[in-house]
């Protein structure tokens, strides 16, 4: 089976509490232009023709999802999230039947501004290493000690900021993530599990508007970028 003939499924970790957002509900359920951030994100994935199905990992006892039409969409499968983002992703991957026939796009629920053009770029990578969207660093990068004093300035020509989606063969990523978590590594994205398993994922240059809504000030930014993307206003 070739990479091009594998079916594509999106796995969306959406089980976070959004502590840095300091809102009255998890940030994926905050609304922009009448729709939750989660609906914007999943909508962008489901309207992309190669994506046939979305697996959503949500917190156990989540009271918000069931109020959304998403919860009744036959293209969406809901699984329980975990304690960490990596565990939520792992639960999503475990729900995939015949993972050797599937490629996954893992995409944060909190990144609603993803474009189909960026997804096209990722899907052009067809080897087993997989690929992630990322941004080349534009600022000067410092490494600090524990007292927050600079110990080094990095060569930023080789520094990239990882985004999602991250695109891998489902069976390969499942094994890599299981191994990395079993060995106690703190895994903050899928590529790091693949790296630990000996792969060299490709860095595909993304867009700076593919933000992860994290802090309160990010909401206005996401609203602006979505208005540009969809010309909603
Ligand atoms: N146990 C967790 C933690 C995070 N996530 C998801 O992973 C994505 C990226 O995580 P982050 O932006 O850090 O979200 P939160 O963990 O919700 O935010 P915070 O760290 O501020 O609490 C989000 O879509 C979030 O819902 C998840 O599915 N399961
Ligand atoms: C996966 C990710 O979006 C890449 O930038 C990011 O690491 C997830 O954020 P978290 O705060 O570590 O959950």
Automatic annotation (TrEMBL):
<keyword id="KW-0414">Isoprene biosynthesis</keyword>
<dbReference type="InterPro" id="IPR050088">
    <property type="entry name" value="IspD/TarI_cytidylyltransf_bact"/>
</dbReference>
<dbReference type="GO" id="GO:0050518">
    <property type="term" value="F:2-C-methyl-D-erythritol 4-phosphate cytidylyltransferase activity"/>
</dbReference>
<feature type="site" description="Positions MEP for the nucleophilic attack">
    <location>
        <position position="212"/>
    </location>
</feature>
<comment type="function">
    <text>Catalyzes the formation of 4-diphosphocytidyl-2-C-methyl-D-erythritol from CTP and 2-C-methyl-D-erythritol 4-phosphate (MEP).</text>
</comment>
<feature type="site" description="Transition state stabilizer">
    <location>
        <position position="27"/>
    </location>
</feature>
<dbReference type="Pfam" id="PF01128">
    <property type="entry name" value="IspD"/>
</dbReference>
<comment type="similarity">
    <text>Belongs to the IspD/TarI cytidylyltransferase family. IspD subfamily.</text>
</comment>
<protein>
    <recommendedName>
        <fullName>2-C-methyl-D-erythritol 4-phosphate cytidylyltransferase</fullName>
        <ecNumber>2.7.7.60</ecNumber>
    </recommendedName>
</protein>
<dbReference type="InterPro" id="IPR001228">
    <property type="entry name" value="IspD"/>
</dbReference>
<comment type="pathway">
    <text>Isoprenoid biosynthesis; isopentenyl diphosphate biosynthesis via DXP pathway; isopentenyl diphosphate from 1-deoxy-D-xylulose 5-phosphate: step 2/6.</text>
</comment>
<feature type="site" description="Transition state stabilizer">
    <location>
        <position position="20"/>
    </location>
</feature>
<keyword id="KW-0548">Nucleotidyltransferase</keyword>
<dbReference type="InterPro" id="IPR034683">
    <property type="entry name" value="IspD/TarI"/>
</dbReference>
<dbReference type="InterPro" id="IPR018294">
    <property type="entry name" value="ISPD_synthase_CS"/>
</dbReference>
<keyword id="KW-0808">Transferase</keyword>
<feature type="site" description="Positions MEP for the nucleophilic attack">
    <location>
        <position position="156"/>
    </location>
</feature>
<dbReference type="InterPro" id="IPR029044">
    <property type="entry name" value="Nucleotide-diphossugar_trans"/>
</dbReference>
<dbReference type="GO" id="GO:0019288">
    <property type="term" value="P:isopentenyl diphosphate biosynthetic process, methylerythritol 4-phosphate pathway"/>
</dbReference>
């Amino acid at each position: 089976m070739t990479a091009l003939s594998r079916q594509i499924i999106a796995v969306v970790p959406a089980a976070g509490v959004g502590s840095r957002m300091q809102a009255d509900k998890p940030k994926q359920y905050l609304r922009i232009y009448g729709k939750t951030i989660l609906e914007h994100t999943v909508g962008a994935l489901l309207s992309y023709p190669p994506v046939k199905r979305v697996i959503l990992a949500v917190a156990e006892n989540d009271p918000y999802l069931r109020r959304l039409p998403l919860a009744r969409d036959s293209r969406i499968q809901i699984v329980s999230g975990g304690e960490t983002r990596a565990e939520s992703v792992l639960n999503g991957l475990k729900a995939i039947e015949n993972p050797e026939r599937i490629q996954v796009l893992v995409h944060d629920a909190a990144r609603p501004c993803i474009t189909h053009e960026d997804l096209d770029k990722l899907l052009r990578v067809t080897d087993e290493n997989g690929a992630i969207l990322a941004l080349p660093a534009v600022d000067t990068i410092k490494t600090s000690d524990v007292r927050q004093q600079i110990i080094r300035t990095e060569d930023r020509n080789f520094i990239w900021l990882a985004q999602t989606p991250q695109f891998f063969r489902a069976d390969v990523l499942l094994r890599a993530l299981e191994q990395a978590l079993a060995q106690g590594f703190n895994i903050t994205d899928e590529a790091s599990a693949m790296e630990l398993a000996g792969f060299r994922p490709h860095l595909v240059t993304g867009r700076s508007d593919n933000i992860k809504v994290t802090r309160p000030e990010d909401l206005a930014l996401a609203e602006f970028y979505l208005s540009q993307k969809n010309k909603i206003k």
